Amino acid sequence: LPPITALFAATIIHYGKNKQIQLAILILITALFAILTANRAHLYASPITLWQDNINRNEQCWTAHNSYAVQVLEQNPSADPAPLIHHFNRAIQLNPDYALAYRNLGRLLAREGNFKQAIPLLRKAVQLQDSSDENYKQLGLALAQTGEIKEALANLARAFKIDAFDPETRLAIAQGMQKLKRYESAISWYSDALLLTPNDPGIYYLMSQ
Hints:
This protein is mainly α. The chain has 12 helices and no strands. The model has no long low-confidence stretch (mean pLDDT 87).
């Protein structure tokens, strides 16, 4: 596009004061930009097509690989995990210090029940970015699902220290306390979670167990 624009500009200069030719060239430039914009408009119709276009244009953009996979999961939680795992792995390959990709890949693998691979990835995310409550929370949730309750609670406590207003963290701590049979603490944490989400029937159900 820049060479075409430069050609038009040179033509305008060449014809000097010929206003009709200059006007015609300006109309052509405007029409060209309008056509190009229309041809690419569909790419911005959704975040998925936007990030896919980014990957097509620059396959080595790690944020594009990560964001594409995240958007697919958000719009279709039951999507085939294999291509998404590929994109998260590609983001890590391109930038081994990209904590977000480790967390997203670990979270996806944990969802698929592959805790053996998920937990080391979530630990790496914490190592790379220990200021993120989400990193600690996702590690804690994964550990809790494998029965490592005490370590899970330690990570969830770190998450809570960073962000005390995340109801999911409070709820996970409550469940951990309940599994350790520390019922008074569990009730207290369930009550705290209800303060943030008072209309969540799931919390009432868990409290009754």
